[in-house]
Amino acid sequence: MIARLYGAAIRGLLMALMIALPALIVPGMSIDTSQATVLVALLAAFLTFVEYNSASPSIVEFRDAAPFNRLRFIALFVTVLMLSLICKGKVDPTTTTNALTSVGTIVGNSIDFPYSPVRLVVLMLPAGSDYEVVQSVRTAAGLSYLASLTAMAAFLVLVRVLGWPSRKGAFNVWVNLPLFDPTTGGDVLQRLNRDARINIVLGFLLPFAIPAVVKLAADLINPISLENPQTLIWTMSAWAFLPASMIMRGIALQRIAEMIRDQRKRAYATAENEFQVA
């Protein structure tokens, strides 16, 4: 009980810290923006605390299948931190901010080729945008995309090399997949594999689809202004994190389906041996 309460409190504080990072690091934030950030951070901390302090799961998947959620949180935290430091470097440059800007510029320029996700992000900017804005978006897109690819590669190693999640013991479907009802909708394996394929396909398409949708919507509504540091940080973080998170979820669902299939094979083999002995 105490351990669960302590863990939930730590997770809530970390979530609030991540949301407040841009306001804490980037200078020149307005009072209204700071107040809104504090409100959102407190709300996120409260929801995280309630979720992880509860014995029964509600919406958070893979709650007891570490380090799935930890890896996703670290990827998003690092992305927000790096982009916040880059935005700070425009006003108060330091060695760290200059180094991150240089790395982001190199990565952004290297993957800014025709039809790449970074090129599409740059193209979604309004016509006539300043060169500094275009360069900032390219740098932020490169760094955030690099962080998301690193997280996906690390999770793939956990699954294929280290045997996640079987090395942590038995996998509880009810706790780790609270929104998945195994008793309805046909065979569990088919549903898991179908959901896994949908998540992986959407994860690959979203980095290309989001800029295209934003560009098309700009004709009907006011386009997104990425000149504001807060908007730049959260837009680029979401653009890179959401697809990576969906791909990681698809890989996880495929892994669970494999575990269920292997368990069925062992159960069928045991039952057949017992029948032959009898």
TrEMBL record:
Keywords: Membrane, Transmembrane, Transmembrane helix
Membrane-spanning ranges: 12-30, 36-52, 73-91, 143-162, 198-218, 238-257
Official protein name in the record: Uncharacterized protein
Organism of origin: Tateyamaria armeniaca
